[in-house]
């Protein structure tokens, strides 16, 4: 992979992580349960830290780091907002939509890991991918808890 390919891959992950940050923030605003609000807020902060780490890597490869989220994330957040309004801000609906957003993040990180990344980049992406998987599993578990409640 040349530097442009590396920068492009990392910038895609920055968009994904910014989508996650903003998505978790939206979910925190929409959730009624204080525990969920805290969970979503903490996840938003983790995504923000991932963005900063990825932006630093982009700079180290001579690129300009992405600073905005993607269109898909904006559309997803609007869907969360609309669905929350329609369902009376039901926490189950918020969790379901949050899980859908995490499905996208898992796919984005898998696509990046399928590429021939330099070892120092791969280790960061792999570590962040493990965090994305943990977020996904936690959201799914919470969704299942709220579904059965």
UniProtKB/TrEMBL annotation:
Record-linked InterPro entries: CHP02284 (IPR011971), DUF2383 (IPR019052), Ferritin-like (IPR012347), Ferritin-like_SF (IPR009078), UCP029477 (IPR016920)
Residues annotated as domain DUF2383: 5-115
Protein name, per record: PA2169 family four-helix-bundle protein
Lineage of the organism: Bacteria, Pseudomonadati, Pseudomonadota, Betaproteobacteria, Burkholderiales
């Amino acid at each position: 992979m040349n530097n442009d390919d590396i920068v492009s891959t990392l910038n895609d992950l920055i968009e994904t992580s910014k989508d996650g940050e903003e998505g978790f923030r939206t979910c925190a605003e929409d959730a009624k349960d204080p525990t969920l609000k805290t969970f979503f807020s903490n996840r938003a902060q983790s995504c923000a830290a991932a963005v900063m780490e990825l932006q630093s890597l982009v700079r180290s490869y001579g690129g300009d780091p992405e600073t905005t989220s993607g269109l898909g994330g904006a559309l997803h957040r609007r869907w969360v907002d609309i669905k929350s309004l329609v369902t009376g801000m039901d926490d189950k609906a918020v969790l379901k939509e949050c899980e859908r957003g995490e499905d996208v993040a898992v796919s984005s990180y898998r696509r990046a890991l399928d590429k021939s990344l330099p070892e120092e980049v791969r280790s960061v992406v792999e570590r962040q991918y493990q965090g994305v998987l943990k977020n996904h599993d936690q959201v799914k578990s919470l969704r299942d808890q709220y579904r059965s409640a």
